[in-house]
Amino acid sequence: MKIVRQLLAAAALIAPLSAFAFPIATSGTEGNPVLVGSAANIVARYEGNSASYSNDLYLFTDDGIAGNDIFLFNNQGSAIGATVNLGSFALGSELVFRLHVNNTNTDYFTGLAGRNPDGAFHARVQGNWLPNTTLVSFEDLYNGPFDFNDLSFSFSNTTTPNDIPEPASMLLLPLGLAGIAVARRKARQS
């Protein structure tokens, strides 16, 4: 019985730290684009929501054909953990996602705030949420409250500009590798 009470007390301490049972991208990542980071297929995974509105998530195709975007998930009908394989895309290209709010017939997009009807960011995009995985969390209300808890999903083989090493760092990589090789060689000779 004492162990049960200790576990309940520990759970009570942890509960306030996580208001939602699903991940939400971190603050400060609003407006980041989702970039293709690999030649491998992009796989989308539904992570969860706490929205009362019904929202559909699409991959925006920008092909000029109305209704041609690719449906991924509905925040009320998709199972948490459901995945969709989107295929492969050109390395470095931006993938734009559209959240359609069925209750208000309003669309919000990842990336630039100017894409949205209220001129505000409606998606947080956190690169390297998990290795080689980007987490995206949407806000579904015009002018906020901007808690970004209305639909969260992740993508494998994607990145954000913040994840791309700067050229100076890339120049240091060969030097670091050479240093490791020299150190190993010296260790073998000793």
Descriptive overview:
- There is one protein chain.
- This protein has 190 residues and is an alpha+beta fold.
- It has helices spanning 2-14, 167-189, and strands at 34-36, 42-48, 55-59, 70-74, 83-87, 94-95, 97-101, 106-109, 123-130, 133-138, 151-156, 158-159.
- It has a single domain, classed as Jelly Rolls, CATH 2.60.120.400.
- Residues 4-18 and 164-173 have low confidence and may be disordered.
Number of helices: 2
Mean pLDDT: 80
Could you state the order of secondary-structure elements as H and E? HEEEEEEEEEEEEH
Question: CATH architecture, please?
Answer: Sandwich
- For the secondary structure, the number of strands is 12
Radius of gyration: 21 Å
Record the strand order, biggest sheet: 5-2-11-10-9
| Number of discrete domains | 1
Share of β-strand residues: 25-35%
Which sheet architecture does the biggest sheet show?
Answer: 5 strands, antiparallel
List low-confidence stretches: 4-18, 164-173
Structural class of the helix and strand makeup? alpha+beta
Distance between the termini: 59 Å
